[in-house]
Design goal:
Layout: E1 4-15, E2 21-32, E3 35-40, H1 43-56, E4 65-68, E5 72-76, E6 78-83, H2 99-111, H3 116-132, E7 135-140, H4 145-155, E8 158-163, E9 166-169, E10 172-175, H5 177-187, H6 190-193, E11 195-200, H7 209-222, E12 225-230, H8 234-244, H9 248-254, E13 262-266, H10 272-280, E14 283-287, H11 289-294, H12 302-307, E15 311-314, H13 327-342, H14 350-365, E16 381-385, H15 397-403, E17 410-415, E18 418-422, E19 425-426, H16 431-445
Parallel strand pairs: 1-4, 1-5, 6-7, 7-8, 8-11, 11-12, 12-13, 13-14, 14-15
Antiparallel strand pairs: 1-2, 2-3, 5-16, 9-10, 16-17, 17-18, 18-19
Length: 449
């Protein structure tokens, strides 16, 4: 059941409608059900808003919990805009390899042996990790996604979730509109709007040329968005140029992929023309700094994308290539990489990467009422306790969140008005059971390559 909560005396850090961050000191935030109904510095107005909301819902008595914000920051939950959550089973088992060897020699052979139960428990583990670190939503691309959807609904976790939407046999690849439609009918909007459905179009190198237009047609017919990897490595770009005579971005655009709302992960190796195409399309590009560095894929030029009008969010990628889902780490690395690449310390400021990790990610996933602390928005909130040596004195709270905070500073997490982590403890996941299940399943899976 959603809570009625008065968050009092908090430092609030939130995106605003102008694409900047607001910082409110000693602020009050009132939450009724799944919505934020008041943000401001007046306790009396905050309490009055709760009383009025109670009367409008037919209640006769007003009661609410109070959460003391002394030495705490309240900000939106993070939106991890590119992930492969069930790959936590392969964490720390396929390292120090280039992407092509990592994918084709280790990951794909193991994925052939995954079961539905593997996916379910791995999804719970990945969601537990993300919630602990202040992440309340993820765009996820993986297989047997009905199991991940069930885990998300059990947990109260928000997702833009891919369905495979295709089959493969001896005659080749085939779209599976029946399966995609059934998945959408079951899960799109489930959990009072927690889940949105998209179609997996893995990459420009995964399918035969004729199949891409079929996938775009399938997404249009079922009316879902698309998730895709794009321009992640130089090898991908070189092979695509050899096969199609154009870059991966241009090839995908020619097939119509970017005519659909699309989350495009990586964008490491882009031309100016590529960035113009992405800016003109219904595309959010997701920067994955840890994974790109670990696989030696290169350094994504986020500043160039932003200058050309590309919408950019932030992601972790999967735990087989990162090897965690710590969005605090991704913010810090993204900012440092941009500064180091451009030799300009002003590039990708703390403000910019918080916006990428929150509002931009939610918008890319299609959750337009998330990622901002304002009346009428969904109550998707995290609380950071800065009363610790690593963050004291807090100074500028925006800088503190990016340059000195970490996942361990997250005290509580609320998604759609429900505390999924409360003062250090997960409330919807039996983490000890999940750890036991995933330990034995990981041991089995990692034997296959």
């Amino acid at each position: 059941m959603a809570r009625t909560v008065l968050f009092k005396n908090f430092t609030v850090v939130t995106p605003n409608n102008e694409g900047r961050l607001d910082v409110l000191k000693d602020a009050f935030v009132a939450v009724k059900g799944d919505r934020i109904i008041y943000v401001g510095d007046d306790r009396a107005l905050a309490v009055r808003s709760l009383m009025e909301a109670q009367r409008e819902s037919g209640g006769t008595q007003i009661g609410f919990d109070e959460y003391n914000g002394k030495n705490k920051i309240l900000l939106p939950t993070f939106a991890n805009a590119h992930s492969h959550i069930p790959m936590v089973l392969m964490r720390n088992s396929a390292d120090d390899m280039c992407l092509e060897d990592w994918l084709f020699k280790r990951i794909l052979p193991r994925e052939e042996h995954l079961t539905k139960e593997d996916i379910y428990f791995a999804s719970l583990l990945g969601m537990a990790e993300m919630i602990h670190g202040g992440t309340g939503a993820a765009a996820d691309m993986y297989y047997m996604s009905d199991e991940t959807a069930c885990a998300a609904l059990q947990t109260g976790f928000r997702m833009n979730l891919c369905n495979d939407g295709k089959t493969r046999d001896d005659s080749g690849w085939h779209t599976d509109r029946v399966a995609l439609q059934a998945f959408k009918n079951t899960f799109h909007g489930a959990g009072d709007g927690l889940i949105r459905v998209s179609l997996m179009v893995h990459s420009i190198y995964m399918y035969p040329q004729s199949f891409y237009s079929e996938l775009v047609s399938e997404a249009a017919d079922i009316d879902v968005s698309i998730q895709v990897h794009v321009a992640e490595t130089r090898t991908e770009v070189e092979n695509c140029s050899a096969q199609y005579g154009v870059t991966p971005v241009k090839a995908l655009a020619n097939f119509g992929v970017f005519d659909r709302p699309c989350i495009a992960a990586h964008g490491v190796h882009l031309t100016d023309e590529d960035r113009d195409i992405l800016a003109a399309g219904h595309v959010t590009v997701v920067h994955n700094p840890s994974s790109n560095m670990k696989l030696a894929s290169g350094f994504c030029d986020v500043q160039a994308m932003k200058k050309q009008g590309v919408r950019v969010a932030l992601g972790t990628d999967g735990c087989a290539s990162n090897n965690n889902t710590d969005m605090y780490m991704e913010m810090r690395l993204a900012s440092f990489m941009a500064k180091g690449k451009t030799h300009n310390p002003a590039y990708l400021s703390a403000e910019e990467v918080i916006l990428m990790a929150t509002r931009s990610g939610y918008e890319g996933m299609g959750f337009m009422d998330c990622g901002m602390i304002a009346a009428g928005m969904s109550a998707d909130l995290q609380i950071v306790d800065y009363d610790r040596p690593s963050m004291w004195p807090v100074g500028d709270p925006v800088s503190a969140l990016v340059y000195s905070a970490g996942a361990s500073a997250v005290e509580s997490v609320m998604i759609a008005g429900h505390f999924v982590k409360y003062k250090g403890e997960l409330t919807t996941i039996d983490i000890e059971k999940v750890k036991a299940e995933t330990s034995k399943r990981a041991e089995r899976i990692t034997q296959f390559a």
